[in-house]
TrEMBL record:
<protein>
    <submittedName>
        <fullName>VOC family protein</fullName>
    </submittedName>
</protein>
<dbReference type="InterPro" id="IPR037523">
    <property type="entry name" value="VOC_core"/>
</dbReference>
<dbReference type="InterPro" id="IPR050383">
    <property type="entry name" value="GlyoxalaseI/FosfomycinResist"/>
</dbReference>
<dbReference type="Pfam" id="PF00903">
    <property type="entry name" value="Glyoxalase"/>
</dbReference>
<dbReference type="InterPro" id="IPR029068">
    <property type="entry name" value="Glyas_Bleomycin-R_OHBP_Dase"/>
</dbReference>
<feature type="domain" description="VOC">
    <location>
        <begin position="11"/>
        <end position="138"/>
    </location>
</feature>
<dbReference type="InterPro" id="IPR004360">
    <property type="entry name" value="Glyas_Fos-R_dOase_dom"/>
</dbReference>
Amino acid sequence: MSSERPFEIQRIDHVVLRVQDLPRAVRFYCDVLGCTVARERPSLGMVHLHAGESLIDLISVDGPLGIKGGAAPGREGRNVEHVCLRVEPFDAEQVRVHLQGLQVELSGPAERNYGAEGDGLSLRLRDPDGNSVELKGRSNDCGC
């Protein structure tokens, strides 16, 4: 087996989440987190969202693609552990105030976590379908 690969991973291109209420999920990711709609594909029950240089694809659990995944995500079963979105600037208190103003609860205080750029502060929350979303600041960012 050769150790030479014909490619190098550059970044996450996209993440696909199955959701129970597609319009509600689109509103959350756009209005709360600042994503923008890149493309809508109603025939597939799918919406592609710009998330910085990456995409978050949302598919309806009862749509042509989503139905293949079985039961909807919930408290006892999720599609993914979490999705981490690198955000800037990252001020933990400003993020907390922003989310509270939108009635979005955080899963706890800011914590230092390891990511693609190294250790940095992050906050966690849940989207309307219970998927965990981590908002991560710059590596070694104090969050002040």
